[in-house]
Amino acid sequence: MRENFSLFAVLVMPPSSLMKISFFLLTVIVSISCGAAESSPKPNIVLFLVDDMGWMDSSVYGSEYYETPNMERLAATAMRFTDAYAVPLCSPTRGTILSGQYSARHGITTASGHQPAGPEGASRYPEKASPASQFIYPTSKNYLDPSLVSIAEVLKEAGYRTGHFGKWHLGVAPEHRPAAHGFETSWFCVPDPGPPSYFSPYAVQAEGNPRGKSKVGTITDGPEGEYIVDRVTDEALKFIDPHKGEPFFLNLWQYGLHGPWGHKEEYTAEFAKKTDPRGFQKNPIMASMIKSVDESLGRILDKLEADGLAENTLFIFSSDNGGNVHSNTAEDFEKSPIKPGHPKYEFMEDWKKWAGAEGPTNNAPLREGKGRIYEGGQRVPLMIRWPGHVEAGVTSEVVVHSVDFYPTILDVAGLEPSGQQVLDGLSLVPVLEQKGELDREAVFTWFPHQIPAVSVRAGDWKLIRRWESHREYPELRELYHLREDLGETNNLASKMPEKVAELDALIDGFIKKTGAVVPIPNPDYLEPVAAIKKSPTTGLVPKQCEVAVIDGVMRVTATGKRPFLGTAQAKFAGPLTVKMRVRSPHGGKGSLVWKTEAQETFPEEGQVIDYTLSAAEDWQDLALELPVDGTLGTLRIFLPAEKGPVDVEMIEISAGKGKVRQWAFSE
């Protein structure tokens, strides 16, 4: 009433009196405006990124095995995205988040951020490629280019306090570390594909730590046995305290759920008693680690709420790629040469004890996982909370990408792009506020590594393009309608050539727009002979390689790092002689490894004969003496096929008194 009366009194004053108080009124208006501005400070930004967390790795997205109450708590106050994408490996996604650019543009295209940068101006192509490959595929940058303006640099320039905590994986040299990209405060280590150890001591090698010796960075040890997921959270909370009265950017990139998969055994033991009603997720180690990450999230949410910061904070929760389904399988452990006494042996035994033959997680109903271009590799969880702007507990089916985080943060902070670099993403604010749509046709994933491919997602359609066939993925084009076929089981490419052409054109435009370094033809490629018949040779079992008989010659082509032929069909008492007639245009070192019938496993040393093939087009005859003590059980013939195929005309294993086992492919 007093304010209303005063305003009425002013309105009825004579003009002369009004002129006298005009300056006073202007001062009041400015004062009120300044007060309003002070009561609405710039929003804080929190980016909580989990390592290797799959789309189905929380109860929020449908898991009935993992327990994630704090993720549920966040989802209840946020917008949950069902169709969010990242690159299938960590370093590319992390570079995309900080630069606002697709990996095809910023150049980090695989998880190589822990490797040396390489010489300035070096070619992005290796000098040679395997003759078995039609193309030479580009190499990845191993660091985030300092010339790029990171989102942290923009925020810092605008008055934000900036802090990075946890995994970095964007370069090891000082000029490539967090401080060089705009972070005033940091707690991290390099190199860091995973943490140095999940349990303190971190900075110095702990007994049995398979990750190696001391790490470089700002990481410091805590109390013995401290869990690194908890410690990263502690450091993040310490960052918030002194900056409560000023805007801050908290970049929290947790080490979980990456290898070496350290876990709290008390949690793991409880999950070992649990079964998944869906029948998919069964790994108690992963469940334990997810529980710890969920607790970390809960502590950050608690802090923001306790300090009265939650209402003015943009909170982004996501993952750097899809869930890992390829590591620590039964086949991995079966092939492993690691024996008792090796630093990694204890880890292997721990995994077998708790997880058995289970890989880290299961992304069903999505296909495959980390390191693959299918949905299981690149579709990730994403929740964004922004009180007063985002309706609590809503779900969005809009197709988004981690490339969108940069422009979204700029928009929320009321900042304009620096203009110094191209931004490939779009602000998600119209979607978050449910006031508009995104003005783009598609999102893209560029992945010229492992099983090289590029994909485009446009509406409900997804096209995968490969440069050459792979033994597991023979089709060069795969077309899926994801709304009807989320598991990517029905390739429609042959039935819908017009749709393939339409999406192919989008990929061509993406490559041109981003300046992607594309694969180039391999001049050393050897065209397969039409008469090749792909079938294993009786008694010889190919491992990490393929064999094919070509006009009386067995060609061995590597598919893994250590290709070999195994046989158990020469059970002769030693000593033995192994003869081979082989040729290799690349040459290299090979070996013969054996175990006797009395030995359950291959010994680590003492039963190896090494040999060397010259790089030549001519046939080479080898005769190698095997001092077998007892009866030969299994022989492995390792061939130098990593750089290119090795041709074999004859293999013979002989003992005394005419005992011979021979493979003569020319007969």
Number-wise, the strands total 28
**How far is it from the N-terminal to the C-terminal residue, by CA?**
110 Å
> Spans with pLDDT under 50 lasting ≥5 residues?
1-39, 205-214, 529-536
Main β-sheet description: 9 strands, mixed
Radius of gyration: 30 Å
Anisotropy-based shape:
globular
- Helix/strand class: alpha+beta
Give the integer mean of the pLDDT values: 88
Number of helices: 15
> What percent of the residues sit in helical stretches (DSSP H or I)?
10-25%
The proportion of residues in beta strands is 15-25%
Q: Would you kindly provide a written description of the structure presented here, covering whatever features stand out?
A:
The chain is α+β, with helices and mostly antiparallel strands and 667 residues long. Strands 1, 2, 4, 5, 8, 9, 10, 11 and 12 form a nine-stranded mixed sheet that branches. Helix 3 crosses helix 9, helix 7 packs parallel to helix 9 and helix 8 packs across helix 9. The longest helix is centred in the first third of the chain and has 25 residues. The N terminus is likely disordered.
Describe the protein's topology.
Blueprint: H1 2-11, H2 15-39, E1 44-50, H3 69-75, E2 79-85, H4 90-99, H5 103-106, E3 135-136, H6 151-157, E4 161-166, E5 185-187, E6 189-190, E7 216-217, H7 228-240, E8 248-253, H8 265-271, H9 284-306, E9 313-319, H10 330-335, H11 345-355, H12 375-378, E10 379-385, E11 394-396, E12 400-401, H13 405-412, H14 429-432, E13 443-447, E14 453-458, E15 461-465, E16 477-481, H15 497-514, E17 520-521, E18 541-543, E19 545-550, E20 553-558, E21 564-567, E22 576-584, E23 588-596, E24 608-613, E25 616-626, E26 632-638, E27 646-654, E28 660-664
